[in-house]
């Protein structure tokens, strides 16, 4: 089963990666830019596996670049308290 198949698993996966990046000293700005890059990649290259991912993809595609950065930052905030180690 892929982490993309279940939204809770996806949030745990993202939370784990966020905590790992923070633990390695990655700046909040770098994390934000990486989240933006990942959002663009997922929107263009990966089919949504559940309703939540489909909504996020649709929001991303409707947004301009500034709004996409805001979505990426919100996703980072969403997963701050997620992850398998929490």
TrEMBL record:
Q: Which InterPro entries match?
A: DUF3243 (IPR021637), Uncharacterised_YmfJ (IPR024702), YmfJ/YflH_sf (IPR038292)
Cite a single Pfam family from the UniProt record: DUF3243
Q: What name goes with this protein?
A: DUF3243 domain-containing protein
């Amino acid at each position: 089963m892929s982490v993309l198949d279940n939204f809770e698993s996806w949030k745990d996966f993202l939370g784990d990666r966020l905590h790992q990046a923070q633990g390695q000293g990655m700046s909040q700005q770098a994390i934000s830019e990486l989240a933006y890059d990942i959002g663009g990649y997922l929107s263009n290259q990966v089919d949504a596996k559940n309703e939540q991912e489909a909504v996020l993809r649709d929001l991303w595609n409707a947004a301009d670049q500034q709004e996409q950065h805001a979505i990426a930052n919100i996703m980072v905030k969403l997963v701050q308290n997620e992850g398998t180690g929490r």
